[in-house]
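Hi Y.,

Following your request, here is the sequence exactly as I used it, all 681 residues.
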Amino acid sequence: MKRLENYPNLDDSFLGMNSPRFIRAILVGSVVIFGHASSIFAVDLFISEVMSSNGATLRDRFFSSSDWIEIFNPKQEPMDLDGWFLSDDPNELQKWAFPKVILKPAQFLVVFASGRDLAEPGQELHTNFKLSRRGEYLSLAQPDLSIVHEFRPSLPPLKQDRSYGVEMLAGSESLIAANAEVSYLIPSSGHSKINWTSPEYEETEEWARGITGIGYHMDGTLGEKTRVKSNSRGIYMRAWFDVEQKQNLERLILLIRYDDGFVAYLNGKRVLGVNAPEAVKYNSRATKQNTRMQFQDFDLSGEISGMKKGKNLLAVHCLNFKDDRIDMLLHPVLIGGQLAGMDPGKMVLLQYPTPGKMNAGRAEEEAGKPFFSHVSGPFMEGFELQINPSDPRDEIRYTVDGSMPGSGSSLYEQPLEINGTVMVRARCYRQDAQPGEPVSATYLHLDWSLLEFSSNLPVLLIENFEGGPIGQDQIQTAHMTFFEPGTDDRTWLVNPLKLETRVGIKERGASTASRGRLKKSYAVESRDEYDKDKDISPLGMPEDSDWILYAPYDLDLAIIRNAFAYEVSNQVGRYAMRTRFCEVFVNTDGGTLNSNDYAGVYVFMEKIKRGPNRVNVKRLGPEHAAEPEISGGYMLKIDNPDPGDMGFSAGSMQIMYVDPKENEITTKQRKWIINYIRNMY
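Below is the corresponding structure, written out as tokens. Let me know if you'd prefer a different format.
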């Protein structure tokens, strides 16, 4: 099996001509070679794909999720882009100019719409404008300002990580979708001899069901949708898919995000291994680390003959690298289809984003969104909850345990009786359509004793749905609700809430937590329905997703010392964490929220991190290997190490890496910053 990436010299045996329609697609800046002539070569350069809300699809060299624009050269000769223009303003077509870039025949080029204005030949390109996810004008113009491709009046609104572009696979089908339900297992010694990759294998009760995007991350930033236990060595995954007309399949493409290696099996046959040993055991490790978290594509078209009409099985063994304990991920997507001509005048919502690669086909229709009869918030008397679909063709599946609803979840048929604290999550499904967006609502049952509770401070309610004590080792899924003072300058829990969100939460602190303090501090990250970071703006602070609930206790009985120092710093013009005092209730044992769940007065504050609303310094990239670039962009902390971190010592102090993270910093950068810090002492 040859991987579709960076083969500058193609040999005839590889092109081998199993099919005269063979296409080879590769990554950014490489070439797509068509094995047959097509009318597409009669058109000029065009914008082949656009993403205006990049969440986790592609990172630029600054490790940012910048939006991007893909240009394709369908001609049979190279094209020089020097002096061509991209613009988001129909009245200023020359807004951003390309440098001298030669685009080879059938080559893709990705340009980041980040606003950074970088146009160095041979380097990553960034426009001086950004794209709006709500849609806006976009054009590609020649040096004489004649427009060769434009979106007028505007691009359509796009959801996060969805792209709009030219269909390149006709009749393409999502055999295994990006949010497919699969079976998975964390293997142990008891699974060393099971034939789990075979279609004949019968899954035991040990196998769980989950949404693809299986894994974990200490910071929850991989976009994992089904979380597994930290420090897992491997993941077994089994995904069934149907093939109705095998004779119509000409291409079989595996798109996969993985950390750090994997072995793929099709109907029991090993068809692909990446960063994996030849002989794989249940406890095997990846042979090297993979730090590229965007989807990578592999052509499995040669394996179509091993498929059959009806049900087929893709099994994948994900492997973790021995020195990479902070994260792990397995997220496969399988696409089948036929080849298609390309018409830049017919843009569609694509099945999956493919920056720098051949586009997938048209996205399937998507089911609608469910609506709840009651908004999230506290209640004292039970009620009936109605859930209605936005489209009458849809059926609604729901859960009440906090898990993502799947096609096998409970079918909504009648109103739900809400008598206790619960998170209800619902999702619409429709035959021959992609599942709709999940929606959740959380209802907090308050004890009558809190009817008279009030405060002159904001009040936060944290509920982890019988998750037990919140510890340091594992991020728990929870819900956080914000109440603020009303017109009477008092906060009442019976008044409308100000903000509510799903969160990931764990105990914060190294030395303080180890002393077993009764009043705990917490690290909190706000999350969307897919457990990805979600920016919020609580208590009037600039929006972000990472927050701290600091618990002044035995080291600060006055409660205000840290917050006062931060405020003074901000008022004299030096950034420090913004803070708001609040009172907090934390319910970890289930049941009704009452006065026993009162945790005390806390300081809600920002987490120190890089960003325009936090520490606004440039990010250090892996290409920064010499002065002056290597000298700036470090964020360090003096603290005990987090799990998997070692840091370095200087002046009898232990110093930890914050940004770049310990697994991201290069050897040259590590050596430079260690020498610099040690020379200070």
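The radius of gyration is 27 Å.

Thanks again,
Q.
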